[in-house]
Amino acid sequence: QIGDLMVHDQTFYVIASPASDGDTPLAAVGYELMRRFAVKTDYEHEQLTFYNGPSFTYSGNGTEVPLLTDGRVLAVNGSVDGASGVFVLDTGNAFGFALESGFVEQKDLIKLLGARYHGYAGRGYAGPLAESYYARVKTLRMGDAEVTNVIAYLATGEPAPGEKAGNIGRSVLRQFNVTFDCMRGHLYLEKNANWGKPGVFNRAGIVIDPMEQGQKVMTVLPGSPGDVAGLAVGDVITGIDGQPPGDDSEEPTFLQPVGTVLHLTVKRGEEVRKIAVTLKEVI
Fold it and tell me: What is the pLDDT of residues 176-214, one digit of tens each?
């Protein structure tokens, strides 16, 4: 049962996740369910709506995009600043928009996008991801739909067999209310209140990873506010303006407007110190 929806004889793929609080997800709503229903993800109101698959007819005003199916993977044809490829749609990707290493190398995207900084790119269920360059994409197209000013992670390392051009996650999809109609091979993208808002990279110029004790600093961009303030890889941020940090890899406190001053409590080994960081645009 999902909310008020009762589903019989379905296969669920359960992903084990370390329990941190009562809101920890216990299961993933994936392809086995989505291929039987039309599913609308309303990012604006944080709601999922399931429609009867065989009888579903879309009646909204969204842009229709052909939906590609490769096994249990859903994807779309698209392009990054004119470089075309096939992109996986990943509603579970909380880290944003990632471009795979083979596509990055083939299209010479590090040069095309003017990427200068690289480092930690987060972790998946299989462990840490390959290090990536960080860049700003002017235009990402998905069929006839587009978003602008998107932060992208350009993966490095050996390409995986059969990998797609990239992985479209929350930072892109949240700009639409998204309806998946797998039975007919259609995706519908309705612009919502998030559409058109430029992507924001951590304005302290650091990349962090949540842990029980706080936020661990994984990368510090040279010349960034974090670098100037003395943050270093391995530091653990245990407080931000007197409050414990959240468990989001995109800690919203670091996305506040340029000029905001944050007072951090930082632990390095056994030493605890206080530092001030003034946020600015770094990418």
Answer: 999 999 999 999 999 999 999 999 999 999 999 998 889
73-80/206-211 β-pairing: unpaired
User: pLDDT at position 246, please?
Assistant: 85
Residue corresponding to tokens 């490829």: 85
Indicate the pTM of the whole model.
0.85
| Residues 130/153, Cβ–Cβ less than 8 Å | no
* Residues 214-222: contacts with CB under 8 Å, at least 24 apart: 214/238, 214/239, 214/244, 214/245, 214/267, 215/245, 215/251, 218/119, 218/120, 219/119, 219/120, 221/117, 221/119, 221/134, 221/282, 222/117
DSSP secondary structure letter of residue 110: H
pLDDT in tens, 147-178: 999 999 999 988 888 899 999 998 899 999 99
Residue 63 has a CB neighbour count (10 Å cut-off) of 16
DSSP string, 31-89: HHHHTTEEEEEETTTTEEEEEETTT----S-PEEEEPEEETTEEEEEEEETTEEEEEEE
Please state, in angstroms and rounded to a whole number, the distance separating the CA atoms of residues 85 and 104: 11
Q: Where on the phi/psi map is residue 212: left (φ > 0), alpha (ψ -120 to 50), or beta?
A: alpha
